[in-house]
Specification:
This protein is 38% helix and 26% strand. It has 199 residues and is of the alpha+beta class. It has two domains: 54 residues; 88 residues, predicted glycosyltransferase like domains (Thrombin, subunit H, Beta Barrel). A six-stranded antiparallel barrel has the order 1-2-3-6-5-4. The radius of gyration is 25 Å and the shape is elongated. The mean pLDDT is 78.
């Protein structure tokens, strides 16, 4: 929800309830409610600002978060069905590894079926890249679920796993250390792009 809409809704609610003018509440109660409300606003604003600050300092190379996992996948093309394993999945992309090369037209959608942890999704995929590695062939696809149920299943396959963010912090790490690292990295990236950072 947009902050302006949220603030307008709060003010309208307060006016409708006559929160500040009602004789049912004593001054101490009104002060306590306002202090509690102000406390939560300050806490949430702080968390939001920290999230925006750290995300601004993070280099984002993908439109959606990729997960480098191996999931059974079946490519259904005009030549037949070919079983392989994914090397990574995301909301918008899927990469499948096969033991042999197959002919896939780059502009023709085909069906790819993926299964994981009891979920199954049938996807419309368009080939975006194909390359040979030392041991196999990898095919990267743009993903478009067939319908809402397959989209729901595919989102479960993508995100029903351990996230890719850090799970352990150094014992000596603090908020100020994180701020310092983020500022240094942000300033370094600006300098590399030839933009002078503010002093």
């Amino acid at each position: 929800m947009h902050p302006a809409h949220w603030g307008r809704g709060c003010s309208q609610s307060l006016r409708q309830e006559h929160f500040l003018l009602t004789p049912k509440l004593k001054l101490f109660q009104k002060t306590s409610y306002l202090a509690t409300l102000l406390y939560w606003i300050v806490i949430n604003i702080k968390n939001l600002l920290f999230a925006l600050f750290f995300m601004h300092g993070r280099a984002n190379h993908h439109a959606a978060e990729p997960f480098y996992v191996k999931i059974p996948a079946v490519i259904c093309s005009a030549e037949g069905e070919f079983e392989g394993m994914t090397s990574y999945v995301s909301e918008t992309n899927l990469e499948v590894l096969l033991d042999k090369s197959i002919d896939i037209p780059p502009d023709k959608p085909l069906r790819v079926v993926v299964r994981s942890n009891g979920y199954k999704a049938e996807l419309f995929c368009v080939l975006s890249n194909a390359a040979q590695t030392d041991q196999n062939w990898k095919y990267r696809f743009l993903v478009d679920p067939m319908d809402s149920e397959n989209k729901r299943q595919y989102m479960q396959i993508v995100y029903d796993r351990t996230h890719t963010l850090s799970q352990k912090l150094a014992p000596s790490s603090s908020v100020f250390d994180d701020l310092n690292v983020s500022l240094v990295n942000h300033t370094r990236r600006k300098a590399q792009r030839g933009i002078q950072a503010p002093t």
